[in-house]
């Protein structure tokens, strides 16, 4: 039986189930400590496998397209933070102050890797450039996201984190396993490629562990008593507005700067998306456990909205390409 179009994907359903379980059965005390250690190990394994999966040949193939990469990085790490700050008069009335801080955190994150590449491929864009841009964005985020968080959220006086301390923790927990995976790719890369369908559950399981521990701590602190339903509805609107502006801006910038259609597709899908896989582990390092749940809500909603919107957009790009090719064949 075909899957209903409006039914979310299995991972989204798992996220919803995890938040529900954390709301009804939050872990605390000794159980929270144990889950914390397991979560840290899961995150390290997640980034180790990311390092082992990343092809150096793919990076070299796309690395020469420096104008495209600069534009994608500018959209990811400059345009988004500017939008987050500029939209404060619009977003603040829709959401609570804590949820707005979550929106700012979302704006500071790097781009997704897997879905950006997948949508670029589906839309018939420049896939090697997408691989390079998305992967480099993820690596740069290890250093740039803590700086941006300090700049955006620290300006509100709502974080006591040290930027250098945050970078050190993220380097130890995320970058070191990633580099280890890259160094061992010669020996384990083929095994990782063969077992991708199974290993994706390590990725998803690590994220679900972080979400469970984060929301457990938030629920114990009274998360659902702090966020009224109108604020949740406003958060959906805020995420839609932010994504719409990012999609429009990346498309217009690509056209204005004279990029080809294939390159513009890459710019749209790599420059308008934010990484749940990177954002969830980083939040557990950057923020106190009692605030992580609220901080992650905007990211989780934005993630699902961007997947649904970009899936439709990629199909339209692909259809446009097919129609164009068909027209050329008929004219010849």
TrEMBL record:
Taxonomy, superkingdom? Bacteria
Keywords assigned by UniProt, alphabetized: Membrane, Transmembrane, Transmembrane helix
Transmembrane region positions? 7-25, 31-49, 70-87, 99-119, 131-154, 166-184, 205-224, 230-254, 275-301
- What Gene3D superfamilies does UniProt report for this protein, alphabetically? 1.20.1530.20
Q: Supply one GO CC term from the record.
A: plasma membrane
Q: Can you say what this protein is called?
A: Bile acid:sodium symporter
